[in-house]
Structures are given as structure tokens and as C-alpha cells.
Amino acid sequence: MNGTRRLALHIGLFLATVLTTLWAGVAWSGGTVRLENAGACLRSLQGGAAYSAGLLTFLTVHEFGHYFASLRHGVRATLPYYIPVPPLPSLLSLGTMGAVIRIRDRMPGTKALLDIGAAGPLSGFMVTLGLLVWGFLALPAVGAAEAHPLAAADAGETIVFGRNLLWIILERLLRPEGPVPMSQLPLHPLLFTGWIGAFVTALNLLPAGQLDGGHVTYAMFGRRGHRRIARTTLSAITLLGLPSMLELLLPGTVPGALLAWSWPGWLLWAAIIWKLLGTAHPPALSERRLEGGRRAAGWLTASVFLLTFTPVPFSVL
After folding, report:
1. Which end of the chain is more exposed for a tag (fewer CB within 10 A), N or C?
2. Please, what is the angle between helix 292-308 and helix 165-174, to 10°?
């Protein structure tokens, strides 16, 4: 594929993702995209603008963080490939599966590995933090919230989003009058996309394989340290997922205290890491111990993971 066609592909995928995230934003807010004619469709899609803008800003800054860090170290990388997902009625789609860049060269050394691995999550985290702060400050007064539009009235079920440490800290600082009902999160697109950004950041920073967190872990602790931490991570998320899966198979057998800290989706992520991504990491061309500012950046990245990790991202009540 020549350069012009490749650029057209990047632009086309981005524009398609703008459309699918606009559509998803309308759906999450409880609205409907009207398809009678082009004018009605465009007007109805405006209801998803804040959601689409927040989510795409996060994804773009995250991926270009990797991209520019790669350029700085002379490592060839592609522009981001955005992944649009149509918001199918039967699924609670975000409108996208994210974005990725392809690193075309082997990492020249642990310095480059740390910089490239950490640049995306740290850049994206700043957007996430801004979205959350802005979202909290823009919240209506307590008691003015509407009913959640995605509650399944016939089934009596409502999606509830989990709190992470970053959310808890900001909520106490910026919302002292009371917590935000987590079932109503999609009604506030800035907060919602900030929450999604934190969730995606934590997934990327899982210290295993060639995830961003795996790059940082390998750069800081070498092959042996990476292997041990990756295996520990795989075991930990498996244990987080097991209680809720056992409850699905054998209702009433798992204590409520365990269920409160369990999400079955972690078993899927454990399978993805184990079977698809792997726990190993390819060596860099030059492996030297990191010092000074880069080790501080590594620990800062680990702190971001702890702040954004949500043990139970979703539950249904």
C-alpha cells in the first residue's frame, strides 16, 4: 500500500469512528438517531457530540503520545488506525474499539521502550483527568439528575459503573455534597468519557506481554522481573473474575463479600493475555538499567495504573 492510500485509510477510519461514536453518544444518552433523511440524521447525531469529542480526544492524544515518542527515538511507526464499531442495538457499544499504531522496528533500547510505552498512557491520562475535572464541575445540583435512560424497566436491571481510586479522590474534592449515582453516568458525557479513558488506560497498563504496562515493566525490571510480574498479573485478574463466574454457574455458593470485588470480564482479559498477547516480551537491542528521570517516569506510570484500575468496572442491579 503506497503512502497516499495508507493516509486515506487512516483518514477514512477516523471519519468512520467519528460517525460511530456520535451514534453511540446519542444511544448512551437515551436518544435515537433519526434516519428519515440526511438533515434529520445530522441533527439527531448532534446529541452525541460531547461524547464523541471527549472519547476521540482521549484516544488521539494517547496514540499520538506513542507516535511522537517513536519518532523521537528513530523508531518507525504508523499513524493511528482507529477502529469504528457500529452501536448495535443488542450491545452497549462505545462506538469504537480504540485505536492502535504499528511499531515497525525493534526497540533500540530500554530507554526507548520506556519512553514509547509510557508516553501514550501518560498523555491520555492528562486528557482523562481534564475530562473528569471538567465533568465534575459541570454537574447539576444534587437531586437534579434524571432517571438513567438505559435502565431495562421490563427486566428491572440497570448498569452501574464502578469507581476507581482517581474517581473517589476527585469526587470527594469536587463533589463534597454527595456522590454521583453511577447508574446515571452516561447522562454526563464529559464524566462518562473521562471514566472510559481511565478504564482504557488501566487496561493498557496491565503489566503483561506487550501492553503499554508490559513495555514499562520490561524496561524497568528486565526479562525476569517482567515475567514474574506478568504471571502475577495474570493470576490476580483470574482470581478477580472467578467468584462472579462461579456465582453464574452455581448461584448462591459465593459469599457476597467476594462477589462485591469480582467481575467476570477479567477472565476474558486473562484469556486474551494468556492466549493472544502472551505474557512474554521480546528483548530490546540494548538492555541497560534505567536511571534518574526515566525510572521516575516508570513509577509515575505505575501510579497512574493504580489510580485508574477499577476492580469491578460494570455491574447490573
Report:
1. N
2. 80
- For residue 316, the cross-strand partners are 159
- Domain boundary among the residues 75, 105, 135 is at 105
160: its cell numbers: 452501574
Which regions in the chain score pLDDT beneath 70?
A: 1, 89-92, 141-157
pLDDT at 110: 93
228/234 Cα distance (integer angstroms): 10
Under 8 Å between Cβ of 77 and 70: yes
Helix/strand/coil for 252: coil
Identity of residue 98: G
Same-domain pairing of 34 and 66: yes
Largest CA distance in the chain: 62
- Rounded Cα–Cα distance for residues 97 and 124 (Å): 16
Question: pLDDT tens digits for 2-30?
Answer: 778 899 999 999 999 999 999 999 999 88
Shared domain check, 127 and 36: no
- Whether residue 212 contacts residue 204, with contact meaning beta carbons closer than 8 Å, is answered with yes
Element (H, E) at 223: helix 212-249
- DSSP assignment letter at 96: E
